[in-house]
Design brief:
The protein is α/β, with parallel strands linked by helices and 314 residues long. The chain has three domains: 84 residues, Winged helix-like DNA-binding domain superfamily/Winged helix DNA-binding domain (Arc Repressor Mutant, subunit A, Orthogonal Bundle), CATH 1.10.10; 102 residues, 3-Layer(aba) Sandwich (D-Maltodextrin-Binding Protein, domain 2); 101 residues, D-Maltodextrin-Binding Protein, domain 2 (3-Layer(aba) Sandwich). The chain is built from eleven helices and twelve strands. Strands 3, 4, 5, 6, 7, 8, 9, 10, 11 and 12 form a ten-stranded mixed β-sheet that branches. α5 crosses α11.
């Protein structure tokens, strides 16, 4: 039993004629008759009554709905395959650093789903180790992690997009440190209490660890509640700029550069497992949506060489 046999049967029933069915199928009438006979042989009886008017036998009447459902399922399968090939159907899975989930992943995902509402998405966020674990276990196809990655698992990863962003000292506009015309490290030690210890890298940045020891007043908390404290003027901290971009734009926070402290930078990367095979069209489309959002946020590495900010040692 094959599709041509089912289609010939359904078309003869619809047209009530072997000859008209043959014309609509673009084949000869003998070919239509041969397909119907082969189908009847497999089912063990006549499907159609022959004569002046073509009709259904009880066997044909019972089999017709099944044949029509099979043909509809095959057509739906063809449509789904074409949509998957174009990236309009399918499933994409991604895990992301929590500090990049809001301003980077959120708008990129919204843009992606507006263009491809039929794609199923599964997104998770957490720290660097959590994302690496999901990648290593094959739970997700894509991951946004800290970069460069020194873990052993990094040997199994391919970077698709490398992001660079400044890490800035953020505080409330009315904070005493914000009113200093040329603030220094000594001013931060004297006025920046408590200094938040924020884990925007797999480990705390060594220079900020030294600062934390000098201030003798630190808090180690997740970045979301840390941001709330800074908005209230109760603490100061070094944040990746993308995480506080909205608060800076609304003038809820200000960023300052200490006169005697070199700029800090965080790098992150969108990666995939090297042995996972080629990305399907839907996943490639999500990568491009993330690239576009990163470009709009100024996170994409510049094409021209620029003075390198101090980053976490490899």
């Amino acid at each position: 039993m094959d599709t041509d046999q089912l289609l010939a049967f359904a078309r003869v029933v619809r047209e009530c004629s072997f000859s008209r069915a043959a014309r609509t199928l673009g084949i000869g009438q003998p070919a239509v008759s041969a397909r119907i006979q082969a189908l009847e042989a497999q089912l063990g009886g006549a499907l159609l009554t022959r004569g002046r008017r073509i009709g259904l036998t009880p066997l044909g009447a019972g089999f017709l709905p099944c044949a029509e459902r099979a043909l509809e399922a095959l057509e739906e399968g063809k449509r789904s395959a074409r949509l998957a090939q174009s990236g309009d159907r399918g499933r994409v899975t991604l895990a992301c650093l929590g500090s990049l989930a809001g301003d980077l992943l959120g708008p990129a995902l919204a843009s992606f789903l507006r263009a491809r509402p039929g794609v199923e998405c599964s997104m998770r966020s957490g720290d660097h180790e959590f994302v690496l674990q999901l990648l290593g276990d094959g739970v997700v196809d894509l991951g946004l992690i800290a970069w460069p990655c020194r873990d052993a698992a990094a040997r199994e990863l391919i970077s698709l997009l490398v992001l660079r962003e400044p890490v800035v000292l953020a505080l409330h506009p009315n904070h005493p440190l914000a009113r200093r015309p040329e603030p220094t490290l000594a001013d931060l030690v004297a006025l920046g209490r408590p200094l938040l210890r924020l884990r925007w890298w797999p480990e705390h940045h060594p220079e900020l660890e030294v600062l934390a020891q000098r201030t003798e007043s630190t808090l180690e908390i997740p970045m979301a509640p840390a941001l709330h404290l800074v908005r209230q003027g109760l603490a100061v901290g070094f944040f990746p700029r993308s995480f506080i971009q909205g608060a800076l734009a609304r003038e809820e926070l200000v960023e300052i550069q200490l006169l005697d402290m070199p700029p800090l930078e965080r790098r992150s990367a969108l990666v995939r497992r090297a042995k996972a095979g080629a990305l399907d069209p839907a996943a490639r489309a999500l990568v491009e949506a993330l690239r576009g959002r990163a470009l709009a946020m100024g996170l994409v590495s510049p094409t021209r060489a620029a003075p390198r900010a101090r980053e976490r040692p490899r």
